[in-house]
Write a structure and sequence with these properties.
The chain contains no helices and nine strands. It is mainly β. InterPro entries: Rieske_2Fe-2S, Rieske_2Fe-2S_sf.
Length: 108
């Protein structure tokens, strides 16, 4: 599968979670304060809740329902009740646009 253009880099707000769906795969995209862009699975592994509705702080996104925080870099939960990681997807910035390929999961 090829990378899909999500949006222009400048359209992403700093520390705001944006939900996208590519070929049925829900993904949350975050631009952090250092202008790095991350893409992780959008579904909390504890409660089947959309992480894009959660809170972004530093390099984490927190599930609003039960408070599990997930690393934007590794997808690993940093606290309970979640204990399973979410997938991390490769992000490419090309000519000012954000591209994601949901078939490429970044090993951590």
């Amino acid at each position: 599968m090829a990378s899909t253009k999500i949006c222009a880099f400048e359209e992403l707000g700093i520390n705001e979670a944006v939900k996208v769906e590519i070929d049925g795969v829900p993904i949350v995209v975050v631009r952090d304060a250092a202008d790095a862009v991350f893409a992780i699975g959008d579904t909390c592994t504890h409660g089947d809740i959309s992480l894009s509705e959660g809170f972004v702080e530093d390099d984490t996104v927190e599930c609003w329902a039960h408070g599990s925080k997930f690393s934007l870099k590794t997808g690993k939960p940093l606290n309970l009740p979640a204990y399973e990681p979410v997938p991390v997807y490769k992000v490419d910035l090309i000519d000012g646009d954000v591209y994601i390929d949901p078939s490429v999961i970044v090993p951590v």
